[in-house]
Specification:
The complex is a heterodimer of chains A (about 270) and B (about 270). Chain A is built from 10 helices and 11 strands. With about 270 residues, chain A is an alpha/beta fold. Chain A is globular and about 50 Å long. The chains are: A alpha/beta (about 270), B mainly alpha (about 270).
Chain lengths: ~270, ~270
């Protein structure tokens, strides 16, 4: 799994999206309160947290789909958003090819459509009906559809739900590669910890409020985070324990502080 | 009307022109009705339109204006009540549909001076279309079609995934209101042809028939318009030849086309 972090972009990139003191109340229930969030160009920010903790609501609020009850949230002016929804239930009565889907909210050329589909490995599906796609194919086509808009900000809601475990790692790797290639910002929501964390610059752990935020490493040491995720957090901590050092070319572990570069795993092994 | 074949008269030409005009808008608009699962919404507005007829008669307005006023009101009411949690949406539609239909029927019964051919309004009377009606139908159809073309892309995006369309600023809430108004207009136009009880059939049956052969939303809309035109021609022929009521005859013809389409393997 490729690991790449861009710490400098956290302060230097253009501000794409911001929430300040955000609170959301739905049906008389406080879903979120006092949430601050910023996403800048070139960084990947992942929102994690327990079910019902308000992850998706946070995403919906910054996209303008639910109104804040206090504070403010929104995408900066002139920022093009590419959105990959969690579910995409299109009724069979609506005929739609992949190519037509790519033109749903943009007017790309045929060449641009082919390029975006190729980027997510779905070029061969261009003429297929969307009703015949598997869950994993659909997820990749939806990612390509967001990409063809040439977004400044890519927003993904639980992007791996319909994908098996092997596909999961590959998809996160793809998202990181897209960020590197396009320099866009990425905001995603996820409930699964160790795979997504490896491809994330900054983590926001949300449970009604922001319980902790920082690099994956920093968050993993947070006590509230550990309490929230229990054994899963232990697995994650273990993962990071193994990766608090770098490997030299022969595979020998180097002590902390001596690494000259951020390491890259080329073999795609897992650490669970 | 056994001698109908020899009576290729003005009224027949008018009926054809009127029917084609209605079919051309009912097909594309009906596609959105089936895509958005709004068949019952169309039904509600259609039922309520009888109240519009009663209002038109009482106030001495053009009946088309009365119907348009009521269908637009119901459309806006439905849009405003979306998201209320008091009763389920199907219950709300039922209350509106049958409430308005019944008020209309009661109001008509009170009008002693007016002899109303209720059957003509319930089931349509395409053979009684006047030159003035033609102007109303084709003028209205042109407006509805232009409106639909103008909101096509945002409406389609919002139909496929409302959240995605809003998040990517590809649609806006007012687009849905425009759509509800377009349906209201279509019902006011089509009422004369198939009657208030059968308008929904003209919206959804050609669209459902066209789905079998379509690969894209646009292709389905064009095909639905075509199926609607064929249904009008077939229904009219049936009505003249067998002396059957025109509105139900057109719906029967549409239904026959739908059944035939089921034998064709679906594309995509």
């Amino acid at each position: 799994m490729a690991v790449s972090t861009h710490p400098q972009t956290q302060t230097e990139g253009r501000l794409l999206l911001e929430a300040q003191g955000l609170a959301v109340r739905l049906g008389g229930r406080d879903i979120l309160h006092h949430v601050d969030l910023a996403v800048r160009r070139g960084e990947i920010v992942t929102v994690i947290g327990p079910n019902g903790g308000g992850k998706t609501t946070l995403l919906r609020a910054v996209l303008g789909l639910v109104a804040p009850s206090a504070g403010r949230a929104g995408v900066a002016d002139g920022v093009t958003v590419g959105y990959v929804p969690q579910r995409f239930p299109v009724d069979r009565i609506l005929p739609m090819t992949v190519e037509r889907l790519m033109r749903l909210t943009a007017r790309p050329s045929r060449a641009a459509i082919e390029r975006s589909l190729a980027e997510t490995g779905t070029a061969h599906l261009i003429s297929a009906s969307i009703h015949t796609l598997s869950g994993g194919e659909m997820q990749r086509v939806l990612l390509a559809r967001a990409l063809v808009r040439e977004p400044d900000l890519l927003v993904l809601d639980e992007p791996v739900q319909a994908v098996d475990y092997a596909g999961e790692a590959a998809l996160y790797e793809l998202i990181a590669a897209i960020r590197d290639r396009h320099g866009c910002g990425v905001l995603m929501v996820s409930h699964d910890l160790h795979v997504v964390m490896a491809a994330t610059d900054r983590v926001l752990c949300v449970n009604g409020h922001v319980c902790c935020t920082g690099t994956p490493h920093e968050v993993s040491g947070n006590t509230e985070f550990r309490r929230l995720f229990g054994p899963q957090a232990e697995v994650f901590a273990l993962y990071h324990h193994h990766h608090d050092h770098d490997h030299d070319l022969s595979g020998e572990a180097l002590p902390d502080g001596e690494h000259a570069h951020h390491h890259h795993h080329g073999d795609g092994h897992h650490h669970a | 009307m056994a001698t109908g074949i020899t009576m290729l008269d003005d009224f027949l030409v008018r009926a054809l022109v009127a029917g084609v005009g209605v079919a051309l808008i009912a097909g594309p608009l009906g596609c959105f009705v089936v895509w958005r699962r709004m068949a019952y919404v169309g039904d509600t507005m259609a039922h309520a339109s009888l109240l519009g007829i009663a209002l038109g008669l009482i106030l001495g307005l053009d009946l088309g204006v009365g119907v348009l006023a009521v269908t637009v009101t119901v459309a806006l009411l439905l849009a405003a009540l979306q998201g209320q949690r008091l009763v389920g949406s199907d219950t709300l539609l039922g209350i509106l549909a049958h409430g308005a239909l019944s008020i209309g029927l009661v109001a008509v019964a009170f009008m002693e001076t007016v002899r109303l051919d209720l059957m003509a309004y319930l089931f349509g009377d395409i053979l009684a279309v006047s030159a003035r009606d033609l102007l109303w139908i084709w003028g209205g159809s042109a407006v509805v079609l232009a409106g639909l073309a103008a909101v096509w892309r945002p409406l389609l995006a919002a139909t496929v995934d409302p959240d995605l369309a809003l998040a990517e600023r590809a649609s806006a809430p007012w687009v849905q209101v425009v759509f509800a108004l377009l349906i209201a207009g279509t019902i006011a136009i089509a009422m004369k042809i198939v009657g208030v009880l059968l308008i929904t059939a003209l919206l959804i049956i050609p669209a459902a028939t066209a789905r079998r052969s379509a690969r894209s939303p646009e292709g389905m809309a064009v095909a639905a318009a075509g199926v609607g035109v064929v249904a009008v021609l077939g229904g009219l022929a049936l009505s003249i030849g067998a002396d059957t009521p025109s509105g139900p005859s057109i719906v029967v013809a549409a239904l026959a086309l739908f059944v035939v389409s089921l034998t064709v393997p679906a594309r995509g």
